[in-house]
Amino acid sequence: MKWIRTLAAALLALWLALPASAEYGDVVINNFSDGAGMRPVVFPHWFHRVRFRCKVCHADLGFQFKAGGNQINMLKIIDGQFCGACHNGELAWSVENCNLCHAGKPGTATQVHESTLQKLAPAAAAAASATLAARPASAPGSK
Ligand code: HEC
Ligand code: HEC
Ligand code: HEC
To answer: In angstroms, what is the span from residue 123 Cα to ligand 3's centroid?
Structure first.
């Protein structure tokens, strides 16, 4: 039965390694964050794409199809625009959770994250996102 334990250990190691908080297709938004002393925002695009239709965000909420192409700030978010249309404590957790959005490595430029090997977030943020990803509903979208 030793092989079962070996396999279990290998799977656990894999599982622990996978939920790095930036995945393929994530968008880093850093027009203002660095300048304001906040970590850049990591937007998990696929996580949202599997839950909502493109139209919800790109038509109804007015998000431009361009990384960094929206002048998003916290006043607008608190006013219910952009991320704030959902992250209002009703549809999704609210804006007090600064570090869940501001999860990028300081200094990371606005970009679409193209590689699963590239690490955009420091270990602490990865751990926070792993805790969230542990909820079953999060699993398919975190890839
Ligand atoms: C739901 C996601 C989300 C949460 C939660 C969030 N932010 Fe932001 N925040 C953003 C986005 C997106 C931007 C625009 C990023 C950019 O372009 O640099 C931003 C920009 C900012 C900026 C720069 C622009 C401005 O408004 O001055 C500051 C400062 C900031 N956030 C602080 C905070 C603080 C403090 C918290 C927690 C109380 C917080 N944010 C929570 C998404 C979020
Ligand atoms: C929950 C909201 C949301 C949904 C749903 C969503 N997007 Fe996005 N999308 C965004 C945000 C936010 C950005 C980044 C904008 C920014 O940086 O200001 C973005 C950026 C993009 C970009 C430019 C970056 C890139 O990856 O090239 C494209 C293209 C895009 N979305 C296509 C789609 C398509 C196609 C769908 C549906 C299958 C979709 N989006 C669903 C919010 C969403
Ligand atoms: C159309 C609604 C909608 C919009 C717009 C939206 N989100 Fe979300 N977001 C959600 C929902 C729903 C969840 C899942 C919440 C939960 O698990 O409790 C979520 C979860 C997240 C997560 C956690 C992902 C994970 O792995 O658990 C992050 C980070 C996030 N959103 C950031 C953002 C940022 C940044 C923006 C704006 C650029 C944004 N969201 C805009 C609905 C939205």
So the answer is: 20
